[in-house]
Amino acid sequence: MADAQTLKQHLWDKMSDGPFVMVGLTGNGQHSEPLTVQLDKDQVDRLYFFIGRDNRLAAGGQAMVQFVSKGQDFFACLSGRAQIDQDPAMIDKLWSKPVEAWFPGGKADPNLALLRFDIDDAELWETDMSLAGKLKMLFGGTIRSDQAGSHAQVSSTAV
C-alpha cells in the first residue's frame, strides 16, 4: 500500500498525463462539467482553469473537482473554493496553444477568465491491485485489503 505522500505525488503525475477533470459548484443543484486543469508546480493545493466569463463556474464558491486517470487506476475527489483570478502573470504562465484555440481574442479576449480552485481537502484512491487481486476480481474471488490498492484522506495535496 502506498502512503499518503506517494498518493499525492501520483495525483500530480496522473493529472499531468491526463488533465481532464469534472468541476462543479456545490449546493447549487447544477451538474459538474468537464474542464482541462492547468497545473502550476510552484503552487501546491491550487488548480487553474481557463473558462469563459459566461460559464456558470465564474460565479465561484464552494466546489468539487473529480478526477479519474487515463488508465483508470487513480481517482481523486477534491473539495475547495473556486474564484476568478485575473492575475496577468498567472495567465501568461499557464497560456498555451490549446487554450488559445478556445479564446480567439488571445489573452485579451473579453470572455477570458482564469478560474482558481484552492484545495481544502482531498480523498485519493489508487488501484495498485496485485496480479492475484486482479485474477480474483476476474473470477469472483474475495479480494483482501492488501490486494486492493491505496486510499488516503488528506488536508493538503502538497508533496
From TrEMBL:
<dbReference type="InterPro" id="IPR012349">
    <property type="entry name" value="Split_barrel_FMN-bd"/>
</dbReference>
<feature type="domain" description="General stress protein FMN-binding split barrel">
    <location>
        <begin position="9"/>
        <end position="130"/>
    </location>
</feature>
<dbReference type="Pfam" id="PF16242">
    <property type="entry name" value="Pyrid_ox_like"/>
</dbReference>
<dbReference type="InterPro" id="IPR052917">
    <property type="entry name" value="Stress-Dev_Protein"/>
</dbReference>
<protein>
    <submittedName>
        <fullName>General stress protein</fullName>
    </submittedName>
</protein>
<dbReference type="InterPro" id="IPR038725">
    <property type="entry name" value="YdaG_split_barrel_FMN-bd"/>
</dbReference>
